[in-house]
Amino acid sequence: MKMNWTKSVDENQEMLWEILSCLISFETVSPPGRNSDGVQAYIYNFLSELGAELEQWEMYSGDSLLVGVIPGKRRKEAKSLILNGHVDVAVVGDTSNWTHPPFELTEENGFLYGRGTADMKGAMACALYSVWLLKKYGVKLGGDLQIQSVIGEEAGEAGTRAILERGYKADFGICMDTSNLEIQGQGGVITAWITVKSKDVFHDAVRRNLIHPEGGIFGASAIEKMQDVIQSLRELEEIWYETKSYSGFERGVNTINPAVIEGGRNAAFVADECKLWVTVHFYPNESYESVIKEVEEHLQKLANKDPWFRENPIQFKWGGKSMIEERGEIFPSAEIEKDSEAVRLLCSVHEVCLSKKANVNMNPSVTDVGWLVHGGIPSVLYGPGCPEEAHSVDECVEMQQLLDYSAILLEFMEKWCI
Ligand SMILES: [Zn+2]
What's the pLDDT at 130? Predict the structure, then answer.
């Protein structure tokens, strides 16, 4: 018998609100993170009772990764699906402007308020609710359904990357992060620490000998040398502006931002070290690996014509697995394969459920969909919640949108996992 998921989702909705209310009550703010054991235990138990095969392992003390697989009845031949979501939420900070308590689910005029309702515990609740409905109505999918519950996303932590490196895969992935039910790809981001370091250390009094031709000492201030690096990065940014573009993005969003600078010892020294923290944005059809190469090659041209840089090479530390632990992050880009079977199916399920065409476009921000795609899993970003609500004061989500999303997930998994 063909299920009418829209109807079943609607009839059982109390369960969805109960799940979301539990998820919101865990104060999983990141940074600082290290506070997700409670919410992960809740999800573990929830999925365990529904017959999932579960694996949970620690990424940081107090933050673990969780994967639950609902085994399909023909798991070897049938297609599998990943639903990926993060259970950490953005910082709340000063709560005086909140008119609703951030960690208590509150309803008002068809909207649900609380930190994480839009980004993205609402979506995670829909995924868990979907699994619960499958069980309730005795519906067994053909292929495996894999729920990935990730931590640290708000702090650039590479939880999804770690899950994929552990060997989890599927035939298609949906990153359920905030996209207002638009089907999206994304550009990528990588951070880097660029270091200029002098082999020699000089007293401030020697500066005269370094900067004037008759001074006779070969040396330089690392801070002044970093000025050349910054200038050179600005040139590269301009070259990218002139030479690159991608449909769906404004021109010039592929920026190189000199975000933080640290350097020098104190006023009695010529600075012998200077570090620059940059954030590099790139288009969906570029990889962070190719961007690394371009930046390094461009700065190498600067180094080639400068004798000091030849003696004191520019150093790079690219990316990182956590903004908290190592002040570095990567979110790979994700192109959308519009004509793939999975994307076409998702579009058609969306259209049938909502009686309107799905928007297929590019997210201006970054999410874990990049890691799914980087890991070789064709994937899209597709989740409930308005991007403007993510991280906002009085964050909220429309209740009807969560019901719609649950029904779409169920329809999609039934048609895909066959
Ligand atoms: Zn998010």
Answer: 98
